[in-house]
Amino acid sequence: MNNAQAEDWGYVFLGSSAINSLISNIEGQAVVESYPDFWQGRERANELIFDLLG
After folding, report:
1. Is 9 exposed, middle or buried (0-12, 13-18, 19+ CB in 10 A)?
2. What is the predicted pLDDT for the residue at 3?
3. Can you give the pLDDT at residue 10?
4. Distance separating alpha carbons of residues 54 and 37, to the nearest angstrom
5. Pick from 4, 31, 9, 10: nearest CA to 19
6. pLDDT in tens for each of the 54 residues of the chain?
């Protein structure tokens, strides 16, 4: 019998390089360049994490 329990967890992107790397690895470098402002890239990275992990 599996007694696995759900856990809450969080994450923090450490700088724009982490954000750009995530977006680039999933959607490609051209998409990274379409987010010129830091906050736009951060929002897209957050959307990707949510879509991937819920």
Report:
1. exposed
2. 67
3. 82
4. 25
5. 31
6. 566 676 777 888 888 999 999 999 999 999 999 998 999 999 999 999 999 887
**Angle, to 10 degrees, between the axis of helix 16-27 and the axis of helix 38-53?**
50
Q: How far is CA 23 from CA 7, 11, 29, 51, 53, in A?
A: 26, 16, 8, 13, 15
51 touches 19 (CB < 8 A) = no
- Spatial contact of 11 and 22, defined as CB atoms under 8 Å apart: no
Run of H or E residues at 24: helix 16-27
Nearest to 45 by CA among 17, 5, 8: 17
